[in-house]
Amino acid sequence: MIRLVLAAMLLSLVGTGYVYADTKDVYTIRGISVDETAPSVIEAREKAMGAARLAAARQLINKITLASDRAAAGGIPVDSALAARFTAAVDVEEETAGAGRYRGKLAVVLNPQTVRAHLDSLKVPYLDAQAPLALVVPVASSSLQSAWTTAFGDRNRGALVPTVTATYGTYTAFSTWSDISPEATPQNARRGILAELQGRDGAWRVVVSTVTPIGTESVGATPPAATLEAAADAVATLMDESWKQASIIRDGSRTDVSASVLFTSLVEWNTLRGALARSPLVSDFRTKAVAREGAVVTFSYAGDENRLRNDLIQRGVTLAREQDELTLRSAVSTSVLQ
User: Rounded to an integer, what distance in angstroms lies between the CA atom of residue 183 and that of residue 162?
Assistant: First the structure.
């Protein structure tokens, strides 16, 4: 049993809550290509802005909802007026204008409150909380390894499952967390995503698995893709869809619990409480008391305990029942001890 000290004694260090990650990346759609003509450049530019707003709104709806839920609602039509309501800002990434023509790439920032209110009014469940950062590990034959790694780019920050790309180390489809963690941990990545390239030019497919301190779990395989870039995009889509399937909350029922959090340092404590506070399944997170070796927290969670356990392990946290009490620990510390 943890010997507890009143949380008030450490409020200046730990607080009672946790700041949620900024949702701007999720609600920003980048790289929208536009090419519009009109009697004047100003009119062409306005047409391009309108086209970008419409494209961004539709992409965002598809990004944060599941196709099955959209179909069950009879579709989610988005017209120019609704897209304009959704839009908070339009930023220019590239542009060329002249002779009544406007071409470029635009980024559109959408308003979370407006989008959420619209989906709530349609009773369509959605997920706009990002998964914890992951290290994507491209695996291919030696002749394709460099090109396959390049296809992912450096990072994928706007995805529901944001990633950074592994650039050093010799990885295989059988690499474990101990192999991956030296590159993942310094970048604050809590898990790895193995992306094993198979097939041939014009028909690439990728076998995808997640790697955590407790083991490797298969996610699935992507459909055939014509290029390596398209195959890398398919990996991102597969991971996003898997994250939505695992994390979308479909009812309002919640389980209220008290749990012990065991840690070895203040840094580890901050990581553990951050994992809880950021989980889309968790709400009303509170720190009740803190001691040198652990803390007592309370929170509510959606779904069943196993679903919560699976979510937390993706964040580097283990959840177990000990003497009929919930106990949380760092999965990294646990794996080191084993």
Answer: 16
